[in-house]
C-alpha cells in the first residue's frame, strides 16, 4: 500500500512539474491561437470585490506574471439577493453575450468562481480566494496561476465552451504520456476522482453506467447514469454509486483530503470541475434571460448536474437539506432547470491517478501548507518561499511555512504556523498553528498558539488607516444569533463572547454590530480598532487577544472600532498591493546582494 502511494506521488509530482514548466514558459508572453484560453473570467460577489480583482489582475499583467493576448475579465453578481455559483454562472453567460455577441461561440472559456467573502479563511477575504498565496515560485504563485498551470493542456483539446471551476481547490492528475483530457462531447463533461465514501458525503458523486474493460487505465471516458449531490453513504449504496476493487487493482488511488484508500476499500467517484459546450451554455442563457431577476441561490453543481443523465429524477428539487438559505422560489427555479436540462448527457472523465485538495478553511490551509507531506511533495511546496528568514525549519513532519515575508533572525515561528506577506521583528514569537497575514510587528510580541492575525489597509474619509482582525483559528465567524441576549452563545478564542466584551469594557448594544441587526456574529461585531499605523494596529489587536487569553482587562473604549464586514467595505487594495510589493523588492534586492557576495 505504502509503495503504491509512493508511486502515485511520484507520478503526480512529475505530471504537475511538467504543467508548471509549460505555464512558466507562457508567462509574460503572447500566446498563439489555440495554445491557451481565449477568455479567463473570474466571478465577484459585488462591486468592491470586482474592483479588487481588477486591480490585482492589472498588476499581474503589468509584471508579466500571466500569459498575454488573453482576455481576462471579472464578472460581478447583480446587486440584491445572493444567487450562488449557479446564479453567477448564468450571470457570466449574460456578460459574455453582451461583450462578444455571437463571437463567443468559437471561444474556449475558463470561468473561476471566486465570489463570496471567505469567512472560513479570512486572510483571503480582502483580496479574494483566487489570489491566495501558495508557498512556491518566484514571484510567488497564487491560486490563479496554479489553476492556469494545472489546466494548461485543456484548451487545445476542447471544443468551444466553458470550463467551470472553484477558486479554492486543487486538482492534480497523471495520465499516459500520449493521452490528454478531451472536452469535445456535447452537453456536460466532468472530471471524476476516486475517493472514500466519507469524502463523497461532502461532494458530488457520479453513478456511472456499466462499462466493460479488461485493464486498468489512468484515464477513462464514461457515461453518467445520474449525479448525487452530497449524498449519505446509504444513498451511495442504494443508487449503485459505490465501486469495489474488482478484476484490476485500485491500490494506487488516494483521496487527497483523506487518508489513502485501502486496497479492500469501497470507493466512489467524486466531482471537481466541469465543462459545458456552447450549445448548452446558450440554452442556460436563454433560460436566465427569460426569468429576468434571480432571487435565490442556485448551485452550479447541485442544481445543474443533478438534472443530467438518464437516471435523473425531479425529487432533488424539493430537498433543501444542503441549502444555506431556503427562499420561496428555490424549488420552482430548480424544477425549471431540471426540465430545461433533462435529457442532456453528462460525460465523465475518470482520472484514476488523481487527487483533489480543498483549501477553503483555516484548518485545511494550515494542514496542507505545514503538515501534508503529500501535497508538499506533489506540488513542490516550500517551508520558506521567497522570504528572508535565516532559521532553518525542521526537515520532517510538521513545519512552519513562510511566504513572501521578512523575518528577523531573532524571531521564532512554531510548527504548524503560516506567515505570509509580513514583517516580524527580533522579539516576536509566533505560537503553534497560527496564521499571520499582512502584518508588521516591530516591538516585542507573543502570538498565542492557534491565533489568526490579519491586517488590512483602509481608506476612511480620505485617510489611510489600518485594522487587524485577530481571533482563534477555530472560531466560527459564520455562526450567528438573532438577538443581543443570545450573543453569549458566540465564542471568541474559545471564550464566551459576552465575557470578552466585559474584558474589553464594551457594552452590549445594537451599535456593537454592523449590518443586519438580526444576524449577529463575530463577522459583524465592531471589536477591531482602526489605527494610524500598521504596526500599532497589530500591536493593539494582539493586546485584546492576549487580554482574553489572560483574562485581564484591556479597554477598547477609546478606539474607533470596526467589524470585519466594515473592514472589507473600507479596504484599500492599492495600499495592500504596495505593501506586498515593497516586501517583494526588498527580498529581491537582498537576494541579488547575496548572489554578488557568493560570486
From TrEMBL:
Give the keywords, sorted: Nucleotide-binding, Nucleotidyltransferase, Transferase
* Keyword match Nucleotide-binding: yes
Q: Which domain of life is it from?
A: Eukaryota
Q: Name one GO biological process term.
A: GDP-L-fucose biosynthetic process
GO MF annotations for this entry?
nucleotide binding; nucleotidyltransferase activity
- List residues of the GDP-fucose pyrophosphorylase domain: 101-532
Is Transferase one of the keywords?
Answer: yes
PANTHER family named in the record: FUCOSE-1-PHOSPHATE GUANYLYLTRANSFERASE
Name this protein carries in UniProt: Fucose-1-phosphate guanylyltransferase isoform X1
